[in-house]
Specification:
- The protein has five helices and no strands.
- The chain is an all-alpha fold and 115 residues long.
- It folds into two domains: 42 residues, no CATH class; 40 residues, no CATH class.
Amino acid sequence: PTLSPARLQLHCSENVDEEAVEQWINENSTLECCEVLSNDDIVSRVTSGSEETRIFEECLESDEENLVTHQKLSQGDGLVNTEALLNYSEQEDKRTPTEKMTLRNLRSIIRRKVN
């Protein structure tokens, strides 16, 4: 099968031969969003940190600083907001049972602290 560059992934259920995979790699390597890296490039970026990594880390630090300056919520307000989030997530079909269970557990923990 011919794979277009617009499809940035191969599905395991498709029967593709080596030629189709090579074609996909060659077409996608010319896209702006795809950068072909050698193993050495990957190791170098992970161990020394790339510019993108530094920018990302700076953004995280900035976000953490902004969180500190926000007003702290009371446990009661936290419970109200958690219940609202849980109600919202239960209305969404896209939420997994695990996500919903996590919110329910969080709500239970906050309820115990409030009471």
